Amino acid sequence: MIQLKPVVTEKAVMMIELQNTLTFRAEKKASKDEIKKELEEIFKVKVEKVRTLIRSNRKYIYVRLKKEFPAIDVATKLGVI
């Protein structure tokens, strides 16, 4: 199991609303496929695309959900919004 921590910044909230994208921080060793599979199982959604960014020894993950699954619903479950 991968530890995903939601990122709560102004930019992250804007991405939820405008791009249907959730932002997480995770372990560097986590792969895109593992992340996608875990999010789909936990939240019962379909992931369209997973992008990663490694900065300052931290891995940031941007997960775009398919249009029929609003990211704002998942963010509400997580307590981000």
Whole-number total of structural domains: 1
Helix content: 25-40%
- The Rg value, from CA coordinates, equals 12 Å
Q: Order of strands in the sheet with the most strands?
A: 1-2-4-3
Q: How many individual helices? A: 3
Q: Got a strand count?
A: 4
What overall form do the CA principal axes indicate? globular
- How far apart the termini lie comes to 25 Å
Question: Would you tell me the structural class of the helices and strands?
Answer: alpha+beta
> Which residue ranges are poorly predicted, with pLDDT under 50 across at least 5 consecutive positions?
none
What is the CATH topology?
Alpha-Beta Plaits
CATH second-level architecture: 2-Layer Sandwich
Strand content: 25-35%
The CATH class is identified as Alpha Beta
Mean pLDDT equals 94
Order of helices and strands: EHEHEEH
CATH superfamily: RRM (RNA recognition motif) domain
What characterizes the major β-sheet?
Answer: 4 strands, antiparallel
Write a brief caption for the model.
The protein has 81 residues and is α+β, with helices and mostly antiparallel strands. It has 3 helices and 4 strands, in the order βαβαββα.
Structure notes:
This protein is 37% helix and 31% strand. The longest helix has 12 residues, at 32-43. The radius of gyration is 12 Å and the shape is globular. The protein has one domain (5-78): RRM (RNA recognition motif) domain (Alpha-Beta Plaits). The protein has helices at 10-19, 32-43, 71-78; strands spanning 5-6, 21-26, 47-55, 58-65. With 81 residues, the chain is an alpha+beta fold. The chain has a 4-stranded antiparallel beta sheet. The N and C termini lie far apart (25 Å).
